[in-house]
Write a structure and sequence with these properties.
By secondary structure, the protein is of the alpha+beta class. It is 34% helix and 19% strand. The protein is built from twelve helices and 13 strands. The chain has helices at 7-22, 25-28, 78-87, 92-105, 150-160, 168-177, 189-202, 210-226, 232-236, 292-298, 300-309, 314-327, and strands at 60-64, 126-132, 137-144, 165-167, 239-244, 250-256, 277-280, 284-290, 345-351, 356-360, 368-373, 376-381, 383-384. The termini are far apart. Bound molecules: glycine (GLY). Glycine is lined by residues 236-238, 256, 258-259, 268-270, 289-292.
C-alpha cells in the first residue's frame, strides 16, 4: 500500500485503476445500463429483455450482513478483505474465501465456523461450498466436525478431487489428509452456554416423543430469539459471499454451522449446489442464508440464476425465488397465524454486469446486507417480499 494512504483510500484507488484499465470508459460508469447481449443458445421468455453476458464489469463483493460486521480482531470485514484482494488482481474465489475465513474464525459470530451454534447433542457440525465461475468447478463439505474453516476444506475438495461433496467423518478424514488441523471441539464458552440453555428448556423431563420434541425445540429457539439471547439470523446461521472482478469473473462461497441445535447429521442448503449457492459465470450468482429446508425444496439459487438468464434484474429474480418458496410452503407447522411462512430466508444476488440485490421473505428491524465497491463498505437494505414478521400471530 502506498505510504500515506489509508487502506480504504488504497482500495478505492486500486479499484478505480482496475476499472479504468479493464472497462471501456463509457461502460465503467454505466455498468448498470450497459449494452445487453443474448446468451448463446438460450431463448428469452416472450417479452423478456435479452440477456446480459460476461464482459467488463464493475468489481463488487456482496455478502450477508455478517460479512460487513465481524473482523475477528483484524482491520477488515469479509467484504472489504475480498474486495481488496480482487482489485489487487487475485483470484475471485481466493478472495471471497479469505473474506469468509474472517467470519468463520471469529467466535463472536455464532452462526459460522468456530463458535457456531452446535447440534442437538452439543457438537458443532459445519457445512460449506464454493463455486468458481470461470473454471466451472465446485466443492463442498457437510456435517464436518473439528475444522474451523470448512470453506477451505470445500475449496480443497474442488481443487484436489473429482467430487463435489464430502460428508461427515470422511470429510474430516479428507481434511486431516490435506493437512488441516482437526480440533476436538469447536464450541466456545458462549455457544456451549446457549446450547445448555436450550437443552435445559426443551428437555426438563427427557422428551421421548420426537415430534413433540421437534416442535418444542423450534418453539424454544423462537422464544430465545424474542428474549434477545439469540440473533434471529444466527438461528439458521450462515454467511454467503460472492464477488466479481473487472473481467467479469464471478465466484461465490457459503459457509455455516447450520440450523442451531439441529438433529445430528442434518445438512442444510449451504453445501448444496443450486440451493445455498449457484454461479453461472455468463449470468451471475445467488446464495442464501435462512431456513435451508425451504431453499432445498425449491433449489432457489439455481432458479434465481435461471431467471436472470432470462433477463430479470437480480432484485426481481430474488423476489421471484422467494415467491416460489412462499407458494410451496403449505404445511401447517410452517405457517403463522396469517397463513404465511413462519421462518425467514434471504438471497444475495449478483449478475455478470456487477449489478446486485438482496431480498428477504421478511425484513425484521433494519435487515440489510453488506456490499464493498470502490466506495468502501456499505450496508444496503434487503428487499422484503412480505410485511410483518415470521412469527406474527
Ligand atoms: N441456511 C443454513 C441452513 O439452513 O443450514
Amino acid at each position: 500500500m502506498p505510504h500515506g494512504m489509508t487502506r480504504r483510500e488504497f482500495v478505492r484507488a486500486s479499484a478505480a485503476a482496475g476499472l479504468a484499465a479493464a472497462v471501456p470508459g463509457s461502460l465503467a460508469g454505466a455498468a448498470a445500463s450497459g449494452a445487453e447481449r443474448r446468451v448463446r443458445g438460450v431463448a428469452p421468455l416472450p417479452g423478456a429483455p435479452a440477456v446480459h453476458v460476461r464482459g467488463p464489469a464493475r468489481p463488487v463483493v456482496i455478502a450477508s450482513e455478517n460479512g460487513g460486521r465481524f473482523r475477528n480482531g483484524g482491520p477488515q470485514t469479509c467484504v472489504e478483505k475480498a474486495f481488496s484482494m480482487i482489485v489487487e488482481g487475485r483470484d475471485v474465489l481466493d478472495a471471497v474465501i479469505a473474506g469468509v475465513n474472517i467470519v468463520e474464525l471469529d467466535p463472536e459470530d455464532t452462526s459460522v465456523g468456530y463458535g457456531g451454534l452446535p447440534n442437538a447433542d452439543g457438537v458443532v457440525q459445519l457445512d460449506a461450498s464454493c463455486m468458481h465461475g470461470p473454471k466451472k468447478r465446485a466443492g463442498g463439505v457437510a456435517a464436518l466436525e473439528g475444522v474451523r474453516t470448512p470453506s477451505l476444506v470445500a475449496r480443497a475438495v474442488m481443487d484436489h478431487t473429482d467430487h463435489h461433496l464430502l460428508v461427515g467423518k470422511d470429510a474430516q478424514a479428507f481434511a486431516r489428509r490435506m493437512g488441516f488441523t482437526i480440533e476436538d471441539d469447536l464450541n466456545t464458552e458462549r455457544s456451549r452456554r446457549l446450547w445448555l440453555e436450550w437443552k435445559r428448556r426443551i428437555d426438563p423431563e427427557h422428551w421421548l416423543d420426537p415430534e413433540k420434541r421437534a416442535e418444542v425445540g423450534f418453539r424454544v429457539g423462537q422464544q430465545m430469539i424474542r428474549e434477545g439471547l439469540l440473533d434471529e439470523s444466527h438461528y439458521w446461521g450462515t454467511i454467503h459471499c460472492s464477488g466479481i472482478n473487472a473481467k467479469g469473473e464471478i465466484c461465490a462461497v457459503t459457509t455455516t454451522s447450520g440450523l442451531a441445535w439441529k438433529i445430528p447429521g442434518r445438512v442444510g442448503d449451504s453445501p448444496i449446489l443450486g440451493a445455498g449457492i449457484y454461479v453461472d459465470n455468463a449470468v451471475g450468482s445467488a446464495g442464501s442464508t435462512g431456513r435451508g429446508e425451504a431453499n432445498l425444496y425449491n433449489l432457489t439459487s439455481f432458479l434465481i440464476v435461471e431467471l436472470m438468464r432470462r433477463g430479470m434484474h437480480p432484485k426481481d429474480a430474488a423476489l421471484e425465488g422467494l415467491k416460489r418458496i412462499r407458494a410451496n410452503t403449505v404445511e401447517k407447522r410452517l405457517l403463522n397465524a396469517r397463513g404465511l411462512p413462519n421462518f425467514n430466508i434471504r438471497f444475495y444476488v449478483l449478475n455478470a454486469r456487477g449489478e446486485y440485490a438482496g431480498a428477504t421473505l421478511y425484513a425484521p428491524r433494519n435487515d440489510r446486507f453488506a456490499v464493498c465497491t470502490e466506495n468502501g463498505l456499505e450496508f444496503v437494505p434487503l428487499e422484503p417480499l412480505l410485511d410483518g414478521q415470521p412469527t406474527d400471530d
